[in-house]
Design brief:
This protein is an alpha+beta fold. It is about 30% helix and about 25% strand. The strands form 5 sheets. Strands 1, 2, 8, 9, 10, 11, 19 and 20 form an 8-stranded mixed sheet that branches. Strands 6-5-14-15-16-13-17 form a 7-stranded mixed sheet. Helix 1 packs parallel to helix 4, helix 1 (about 20-30) runs parallel beside helix 8 (about 305-320) and helix 8 (about 305-320) packs antiparallel against helix 9. Residues about 525-544 have low confidence and may be disordered.
Length: about 550
């Protein structure tokens, strides 16, 4: 039955790609009334993004999609390697094994397959409505909501929602309705992307690598199960029109042994890689996410990953604002936290691109000599970049109001055992805030107001034990949370719903203070941007 157009949805999401799908799924699972508006009548059935990292796997896990996502992805078994024209290794980045989030360090997929998993899960929820072939053409602000004008097969319609999220890509209509500015770093390279399906199984070793040949820098990576992708840099004498032809694609694939007899080309297109971000991601009830808020070169495989990080950061904050458990000013921390983090991803991607996109033979020779001398170690062969950390926002403060040191880092996910069940932490606790403590003793410092607040935000209390836990306790893994907490003198650590560290406490009274800080910040978000030198808390030392 159609919704009464005078009754606002909680959230309208413009765009139903991976970011919009995840937002709809997370908000819908939390019980919020969501509508997604997608301008195209059918899902786009050709490849685009191909990589996600362990953190994104954990996001899919918390959305209830672990099994389905595993079925449509290939984990990386080896290194991401860069080689020069002579075949010598310039750098090897270990992408094998399990990452700090309890998922494969790197996984590859075909975007249509992944989107099908996300869309099916979102559309199965009674709280989520999806309208395809429905283009948003107008935005009108009202006192307590936004009215969208849409056009489609059913004619012009209106949709009202308390908040509108623009997940509608690099040419975002929602962004055009905002006054925000854009920071553009002027990084522009054109690459021909060729997605293929080899006819016979083959072993690709390494699975993913870069040919740093000044005659034609080339990327060779997985495109997901049964697929391969080649990317070729446009050279100065070539036009985009000449490069972006089927004939050119086959010509460039020929040295790699790919022919029409053993390979099918699914798609060829030229992308212009850019580096830019929107300066303010929220204006009132309009909010941006994904490519609508930022674009980056693909060399670190962080474009879609960054958009999905946007989604989980925004979903938990918007959810508690809609529930009346936090002030709407909390949504301003979405920009401050995610913008700084995404600028790290952009800077890292540019640094990698500036190494790869070298066309001058002398400059390439000097690069090769420097990187080979570093023994292909990424810590020394690649330009240094700052660690991936959230910008200032919902994070622990020192007594003088400064940001505590090392909060805002991604926390790891280990296995724990509770009531006879052993599984990764999030599979035991579910989504939401998680309070880890060294046994139950620190919890004695929490008063009724603390416990009521934690219950109100859906926090899970996890008293950890190294052995023989009581019935309410959780058995930690031998190399899990407790060794790290004890090393740094912490009895408690508060993990946010997006898996980033809010803060830690060194004693029971400190836990009472930590919970009080979180309660205050959700009601009155802080704006300080300085950091202190407090002891290092629980973090995941992960490559992002």
């Amino acid at each position: 039955m159609a919704k009464n157009p005078t009754t606002p949805y909680d959230v309208a999401i413009v765009g139903f790609g991976p970011v919009g799908q995840l937002l709809a799924l997370l908000l819908g699972r939390a019980g919020h009334d969501v509508i997604a508006l997608e301008r195209w009548p059918r899902p786009y059935d050709l490849p685009r993004a191909v990589h996600f990292d362990h953190e994104i796997g954990r996001i899919f896990q918390t959305a209830g999609l672990a099994e389905e996502v595993h079925r449509v992805t290939d984990p990386v078994p080896d290194h991401y390697e860069w080689r020069n024209a002579a075949g010598e290794a310039l750098v090897r980045i270990d992408w094998s094994g399990t990452g700090p989030s309890g998922w494969p360090t790197a996984s590859f997929f075909s975007q249509p397959d992944l989107e099908a998993v996300l869309a099916r899960a979102a559309e199965s929820l009674p709280t989520v409505t999806v309208r395809r072939g429905c283009e948003v053409t107008g935005v009108q602000h009202e006192d307590d909501c936004v009215q969208l004008t849409t056009t489609g097969a059913d004619g012009d319609q209106t949709v009202r929602a308390h908040y509108v999220i623009g997940a509608d890509g690099a040419n975002s209509f929602v962004r055009s309705a905002m006054a925000t500015t854009v920071t553009d770093l002027g990084f522009f390279y054109d690459w021909l992307i060729v997605d293929t399906q080899p006819h016979e199984p083959a072993e690709w070793s390494p699975m993913n690598w870069q040919l740093c040949d000044p005659e034609r820098p080339t990327t060779i990576v997985s495109g997901g199960p049964g697929r391969r992708r080649w990317e070729f840099l446009r050279l100065p004498h070539e036009s985009i029109e000449d490069l972006n032809t089927l004939e050119t694609a086959w010509h460039l694939l020929q040295p790699w042994g790919r022919t029409p007899q053993n390979t099918t080309i699914e798609r060829h297109t030229v992308y212009t890689f850019q580096a830019r971000w929107v300066d303010r991601w929220r204006e009132g009830r309009l909010i941006l996410a994904g490519d609508a808020a930022h674009q980056m070169p693909p060399f670190a495989g962080q474009g879609m990953c960054s958009g999905l990080r946007d989604a989980i950061n925004l979903a938990w904050k918007l959810g508690i604002v809609l529930d009346g458990r936090a002030a709407s000013a909390l949504l301003d921390t979405y920009t401050s936290e995610r913008s700084e983090h995404v600028q790290h991803a952009i800077g890292m991607s540019m640094a990698l691109g500036e190494v790869i996109c070298v066309l001058d033979p002398d400059a390439a020779a000097a690069r090769d000599q420097r990187m080979i001398a570093a023994d292909a170690d990424p810590q020394h062969a690649l330009p240094p970049t700052p660690p991936p950390v959230l910008g200032d926002g919902v994070l622990q403060r020192t007594p003088d109001g400064r940001r505590a040191r090392n909060v805002g880092h991604l926390t790891p996910q280990y296995e724990v055992t509770h009531r006879g069940r052993t599984a990764l932490l999030d599979d035991i606790t579910g989504s939401g805030f998680t309070l880890l403590t060294d046994g139950t003793h620190p919890l004695d410092a929490l008063d009724a107001a603390d416990r009521g607040f934690l219950a109100g935000i859906g926090a899970t209390l996890v008293p950890l034990y190294a052995d023989s836990p009581p019935p309410e306790g959780y058995l930690d893994s031998p190399a899990g949370y407790l060794p790290h907490m004890r090393e740094h003198g912490h009895v408690a650590a508060m993990i946010r719903p997006d898996f980033y560290l809010f803060g830690a406490a060194s004693d029971a009274p400190g836990l009472h203070e930590l919970v009080g800080q979180l309660r205050k910040q959700l009601q009155h978000p802080a704006s300080s941007t300085t950091r202190s030198l407090s002891p290092e808390p629980l973090t995941a030392a992960a490559e992002q």
